[in-house]
Each structure stands twice: as structure tokens, then as C-alpha cells.
Amino acid sequence: MGDTFIRHIELLGYEKRFFPSQHYVYMFLVKWNDLSEKLVYRRFTEIYEFHKALKEMFPIESGDINVENRIIPHLPAPKWFDGQRSTQSRQGTLAEYCHTLVNLPHKISRCLHVVNFFKVRPDDMNPVTDSQIKKPEVFLLPKDAKKNASDITGPIVLQTYRAIADYEKSSKSEMALKAGDMVDVVEKSESGWWFCQLKNKRGWVPAAYLEPMDGPDESEEQEPNYAGEWYVVQKSYTAEEEDELTLKEGDTIEVIHKLLDGWWVIRKDETTGYYPSMYLQKSGEANTHEKSELRNRSVPPRRSTIRNAKSIHKQSRKRISQETYRRNSRKYIRSRRNMRGNLQNKANIISEKNEQEENKSKAQPAVPPRPSKDLIMNRCTESTRRKIM
Q1: pLDDT at 131
Q2: b/e map of 70-89 (b: 16 or more CB within 10 Å)?
């Protein structure tokens, strides 16, 4: 019941390292049954040796006895010399291998051989480096690359951010920061948690504690969209600040501004306020296991709640007041109502015009002229003639 096992293995990419000599290691994000997430690094030669031992342990499932019974995936042997090109092109195959591996029967996917291979080692936390040699180069695997090796991109330059205040981590998957620390951002999540690396340390950091080096403004932060996008609340939250909203699971709201710190400005009827983005799901989108797991994490801190924040920029980050959100949101709702009213009026006018045109098309016949006296005297009866005499 209490056995440790792996729920998911995700290939993030690879690193080009220069100590003790130039070599390549793959980066894996391993998700365990206790909801922890660990970053591990493995050379391909290690992975292949692990694969060979796994096949020896399960000869039937590896197809050694009957090839038709094979369920353990194939893995190509390492080349005589593994350079960057082969390391890069192999990513699709390796990502598919890991996906298949964790979905094998439990006797294979949860055996000690698999569990021990992907456990965190000391050199995963503190890789052996030399301060005189340049730091490793990181090459990330795009999320939509999947199995197609042609979709694998070249090097991605990681953005460097600066910590504006001290941050104490609250879980093993997070990373503590000191004010002034310079971190490389590996992944930005809409939840407000960013995966960062600092020298030999890696972990999740609240985006609220980071600022870009070139200026206080976040270029990724779009302008408010008062037309709104429809989202459904997946987890209830009770407001802790005056400008936050209290909502219950199942509520439908409109998102009018998506902020990088994971606190989005939303509108419920005519009320606006902040709400954790990790508790929201776009209307019509299917729920996923990853999204459900994310909601079990704590919400990231808001930028406005950080104490002793010290920026290196003279100008502070642009910030829209909650009153501005409310005022502009009311204006938009009012204009939307007026537009609907105008459309209704136009529809009524068009309908009236159509009715008038229909009535005109049904015109009455003209009244014939009254006959003359001579005509009446010649053609009408005696009684009629006496009436005009």
C-alpha cells in the first residue's frame, strides 16, 4: 500500500555539459505517487543499460521468447560517438519510450529497477561543475513536439530574471530565493509558478518574486479584455484580500485580464476581483489529470502582498487599480446593453417597414366614376330614373 511508484515521466530536453569533458545529459521531470516532482539527469548510455537489464528481468514481455508477446518498447543502441545531432534527434523516441514505460503492467512499471533508476541522485541536485568552465547549455523540448523528431528545435535561450525579495520554499519541489538572486526560467506556467534553475539548484518559484532584467514591465502581459473569456470555477476559494472574489465550484465567470503571477482579474455578473488562475478552467475544455493535480498545490503569493520588495528599476511595474477594472468593466457592460438595445430597435424598425410594404402591396381597387344623368336615363330602371328627376 505504501510502495513508491512513478506516475509520469516527462522529457524536458537535454543539457550540453563541459565538465569533466563535453557530454550530453537528458532532463526528465519525474512525478511520483506522493505528488512530488523531481528533476533528474541521465546520459543515454545509462538509459540503454537500464533498458537492457529490464529486458533480462522480463524476457517474455521483452519478446525474447516470442516476439508477439513483446510489450516493452524498443530503444536504439547508442552510437559509437554520440554528438549533439544524435542527442537531439533521439528525443522523440525517448519521450515515447518513457510514456510507454510508465503505462506498462505494474509488475514492470513499478518494479524496483524502474523506481531506483529514476530516483534523485546527489549529482542531480548538485552536478559536478568547474567554475572556470562555462555553465551548461540547455535545449528544451517543445511541448507539442511529441514523437516527430523534425519538430525538435535547436537551443532555446533561457530568460534570466532577478528575485525582488527573499522567498522561503514551502515544499520540496520549490526553490528558495534570496533578494538579488539571478535565475534562468525554464518554464512559465499560467498558474503563477515558474520552473527555474539557479546554479545547481532547480525548482518551482512564484512568478511574483521575479522581475525581468531589461525593465519593470512584463512584455508577455496583455491589456485587459473587457469582452471577457468564459471560464468555470473548478475549486472554491475564499477571498483573503478586499480586491479578491469568493467563488464556489461550478460558478461560471468571465476572465478579463490574465496576469503572470497567477492571479487573474475576473468578472462575476458586474463584480470584478482577483482569483487564482489554477482554480479556473476554460469553458468547454476537458479536465486533465495534470490540471487536477495542479489544483492540489497551494496558490502562489500575489505581488501586492510581498514585503520588502526591492526592484533594480527606477520606475515601478505598471499596475491597474481595481477601481479602474470595475469602472471599465461597467462601461463595457453598459455599452453591450446599449448595443443590444439598438439592435433590437433596428429589428423593430425593419419589421415595421416590412409590414408597411406588405400593406402597400395589398392596395385597394380604385373607386369607379359616377355615371352621368343621360347614361342613367338611358340604361337604368324606372325606379332609378325617378330618383334623379
Answers
A1: 55
A2: bebeebeebeeeeeeeebbe
Residue 213 placed within a domain: no
Phi, psi of 159 (to 5 degrees): -80, 140
Three-state DSSP class for residue 17: strand
Cα–Cα distance measured from residue 21 to residue 124, given in angstroms and rounded to the nearest whole number: 17
Residue 46 has a pLDDT of 94
Which residues in the chain land under pLDDT 50?
1, 146-156
* Structural domain contains residue 20: yes
- 88: three-class secondary structure by DSSP: helix
Distances from the Cα of 29 to the Cαs of 43, 98, 281, in angstroms?
15, 11, 24
Write down the pTM of the prediction: 0.53
Predicted pLDDT of residue 285 = 83
Domain hosting residue 55, numbered range: 6-137
Q: What is the CATH number of the domain that holds 132?
A: 3.30.1520.10
Residues 52, 358: Cα–Cα separation, whole Å: 86
CB 120 within 8 A of CB 40: yes
**Pairing mode of beta strands 159-163, 210-212:** antiparallel
pLDDT for 155 equals 44
Q: What is the pLDDT of residue 57?
A: 95
DSSP 381: -
